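> tool_call: predict_assembly(chains=two)
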Amino acid sequence: MNRATLIFLGAFLVLTLSWGGLLLSNEQGYGALTPYFDDNESKAYPALVPGLAARGALVYADLGCAYCHTQQVRGGELSADLARHWGDRVSYGRDYIRNPRVLLGDLRVGQDLRNFGARAPAAATLYLHLYDPAAVVPGSTMPPHPFLFEQHAISGQPSPLALKVGGVAPGTELVPTERAEALVAYLLSLKDGYDFPEESRKNTPPPPPKEKAGGKKEIAAPAAAPKPEATKK
Amino acid sequence: MSASKPSSPVLPVAEAADIDAAVRLPVLVLLAFAILWLLTASALGLVAAIKLTRPDFLASCEWLTFGRVYPAALNALAYGWGVSAGLAVALWLMARLSRAVLPGGGLLVVAAVCWNVGVKLGILGILAGWSNSVPWLEMPRQVMPFLLVAYVCMAAWVVGALRAGSSPRLYVSQWWVLAALFWLPWLLTAAGAMLFFAPVRGTVQSVVAAWYAHGLLALWFAPLGLGLVYYLLPKLLGKPIRAYYLAPFGFWFYALFSAWAGAARLADGPVPAWTQAAGAIASFMLLLPVAVIAVNLFGSFLGGGLAALGRGVVLRFAAVAALFFVLSTLLYVAMALPGVAAITRLTWFAAASDYAVIYGVFSFAVFGAVYYLAPRLVGREWPFASLIRAHFWLALAGLVLAGVSLSLGGLQQGRELTNAKIPFADVTQHTLPYLQAATLAGALLLLGHLAFAVNFVKLVLCPRHRAASAAAPVPASLLAAPELELEVHAS
């Protein structure tokens, strides 16, 4: 075997090792996380993302919101994510299993949006924020997204979603496009309200007895449980 | 890799000319594409940078909204400039070091055109709204198989040079280049499949993305840069690599740890703790190979080498690349420390260390290599020496200004983000001056690249220049290019 072949094989081995060790093993472990079924609420969490919001997630990706906004509430001693009220708890891997494309983000030019739905203003404000951020947050450096809105002649009733901004010709109105409505539905759907018992136990170091117990059960739902994916593990 | 056969340490001039003639067309075509992409990337990058501080700039153009123009710039830089230029210099380097006269460069040109068409479609796709929004993998998945095939055709050529060559030994540059050429398609195939064709679930996607992002930087850009630096430094200093016997350790340990280090990008994120720890430990272990490589590269400067920096611009480019390799790796090491990670991750600081690899290490090494090889390929000197100097100083000023402002700005941003008493709006406002400085840096880089492009076009095309040089014999100093068997001089 000559030296070039050796290097080739070595290089292959080195990368394959990391692929197996990092990606495959995570795919086997974390990739197998299932939704958790809460008996008391008769619901599985994380909840399914409704259709309009799911389409909004695609708009979020195509406009590249993720280059400025993260979607991960971080823990750790130094982190101030919780103190900034970006979430009631840190994000768990299980929160993301229903998201077709996970965009955690690398950079926080803007706030973390993982729980934006829990703190969102009225839809009208949110539309205006997308149209012209500085009109809502003076001095904002978030880019305006005027192309998410279109100007219509008013026919019959004015649209309830029409933006209240100046510079719109009389007889016309500025309304969100379908993509804008999907994006806003997506933003409003962003909240990880449910605290999974397994993760929350791991994440709160001194477990005060009976505190988190509530009615949430660790064991899979009884035989009568309605949903097939409700089983845990 | 011991020096066993010290015969014919110098490549005969005639043989060097044959080797160069065989790769002339593909190398020049690839470089021409690469330089066009470099200009595109710097222009798009400048637009993105301006938008960060002046959000109203070109705001109504959806194609140029920040979330599209920024990834478009980075993709143009990585795949347009990076891969084309990387393959061009790798091809030349491999042919020279392997002493191979390659046949059939025409096919390679076809593959190069296909690659560049693919990148163009990919970037238009991003601008038009088909972006995946996964860092470094934004191009629509439809172009990925196409790109992969074109890449494999080009890389096979470079590897072919090794097999066809008559040189019995492998120099360490060849290790780095060979491995990098192979790692990129491996990374792209695995990550593309696991993210877009058979997507994995939940945050496993983020692990895949981090593995790819770090792989692209540390297992493609940095290795190619290092391969060039290992070649250029001893050549220009007229001295062998210091402690050459350590070079293989540097190579293997760097590869081993870099492949895992990507997981450190997910520090404190919603992925398993052991994954984060594995990334942090691997990043920390990088200290070992980086020390070895630093001894190799900077050892050559001991004893009068520093004075040589004043003489040649190629050497200066290579020295900056070596310096930034050490610097950027140390940044990765630092960011793996838990206390540092909590502050620097998700800020401009982390972004700055990635730019340092692509620009400071890879691009500087390639600039140096192109200034060295292009005159040898076309058989005449660079038309404007002043533009070469201008390019160097503009690129260096841009690199340092962007690096310093983004890392300081990132540190401040991180410190303020971790202090909930400071309102978020203030954090944003306080980073603005740093981003303005980075914008200025982007403008300097663009100017430098223009100087590079003008010089290159004139060198390759200008007919009057060609007529003049046809009359005068090709300067012997260019053709001679003694190919020292670099490692033979290790004693």
